[in-house]
Write a structure and sequence with these properties.
Layout (H helix, E strand, L loop, with lengths): L1 E5 L11 E5 L9 E10 L2 H7 L11 E2 L5 E3 L5 E4 L2 E2 L13 E2 L11 E5 L3 E3 L6 H5 L1 H15 L7 E4 L5 H12 L3 E5 L3 H10 L3 E3 L9 E6 L6 H6 L1 E9 L13 H6 L3 E4 L5 H14 L5 E6 L3 H10 L5 E5 L2
Parallel strand pairs: 11-12, 11-14, 12-13, 14-15, 15-16, 17-18
Antiparallel strand pairs: 1-2, 1-4, 3-5, 3-9, 3-18, 5-6, 6-10, 7-8
């Protein structure tokens, strides 16, 4: 079957290890099911995999892709929860949880196999492309907002780095949930787009907000860390799920954190129940993932290049014939 996969690891030039071509059919395992992929979406996780982060060389070649929507063996339209081993279903009792492409082959292929527990019904209101955007970036944003930040309608949030998959999802979900959303981006066009999606205002990184917010959604890391901390009200919450600009900020702002009793919470992906809630939320409210571009799987390299260059707003989706 045709697939996009990591053939080599190169930390400095990750795309040099990306190859497109034929790979073996998915391995059949007890308690697992094979899904015919209709759409899959790119994440920064895929670029990090090509750099060898979370993907050891002995696991190569590895089909990339965490997210997918498709048709299961019984003809049902489904969405995949990409965290394997979260419940113990379909894996050994002592196996740690992993995301697809870290230990098991991923979704950038015509077919993928996952534990039956990891398959959820796709709401009829969502297209395959829309549903394929949800299991990583949008689920991460959903958990950051409603589980870890604990915000409620009427609260205010700052979303750093508008344009990225998680940041874009946080803006849209926050607006739909009745939050006052502020955003930042280095790019003027992305700031304008953030406002169109529901942000009250979008600023250049480091800009002073009209007032301090209840929570900050942080995925950028070192470049925006100090600003994120300074934008919080006393007792506010900073939720971080990524560090695309690095994980070592010049100023940790420790004095401000303890003096104002700020909360710093790490967040990774989300649970199957949260994904089910997110799917229902989108179906009921009309909220839809923001899609930057849809490409056929055989043009996956174009999508990877665009993601690596930061030239995206929303999600890049790959489709199979």
């Amino acid at each position: 079957m045709f697939a996009a996969y990591a053939a080599r690891i190169d930390h400095d030039q990750p795309l040099s290890g990306l190859e497109l071509g034929e790979r073996p059919e998915p391995e059949v395992r007890p308690g697992w099911t094979t899904v015919t992929v209709k759409a899959a979406s790119l994440n920064h996780h895929d670029l990090w995999s090509l750099r060898g982060v979370g993907l050891p060389a002995e696991k190569l070649p590895m089909i990339l892709g965490c997210d997918a929507a498709g048709i299961d063996e019984d003809g049902n339209e489904v969405v995949l929860h990409s965290v394997i081993g979260q419940s113990g279903h379909g894996v050994g009792p002592d196996e740690p949880r992993t995301v697809l492409t870290e230990h098991y082959q991923g979704t950038f292929a015509e077919r993928v196999t996952v534990p039956r527990w990891n398959v959820l019904p796709k709401p009829k209101e969502l297209s395959f492309a829309e549903a394929a955007c949800l299991p990583t970036a949008w689920l991460t944003a959903y958990r950051m907002l409603f589980t870890n930040a604990g915000v409620r309608p009427g609260d205010s949030i700052l979303v750093q780095g508008a344009g990225g998959g998680v940041a874009t999802a946080a803006i849209v979900l926050g607006k739909a949930a009745g939050l006052r959303v502020f955003a930042t981006s280095r790019d003027e066009a992305k700031r304008k787009r953030a406002v169109e999606l529901g942000a009250v205002e979008a600023y250049e990184p480091g800009a002073r907000l009209p007032y301090r917010v209840d929570a900050v959604i942080e995925t950028v890391g070192a470049a925006t860390w100090s600003h994120s901390v300074k934008c919080l009200r006393p007792g506010g919450t900073l939720v971080i799920s990524g560090a695309t600009s690095g994980d070592r900020p010049a100023h940790a702002e420790l004095k401000r954190i303890f003096f104002l009793e700020l909360k710093v919470i790490g967040s990774t992906m989300g649970t199957k129940d949260e994904l089910e809630d997110l799917l229902s939320f989108c179906a009921a409210t009309g909220v839809r993932p923001v899609i930057d571009e849809v490409l056929p799987l055989d043009r996956a390299r174009e999508g990877f290049e665009k993601l690596a260059a930061g030239d995206v707003f929303g999600k890049i989706v790959l489709t199979t014939s």
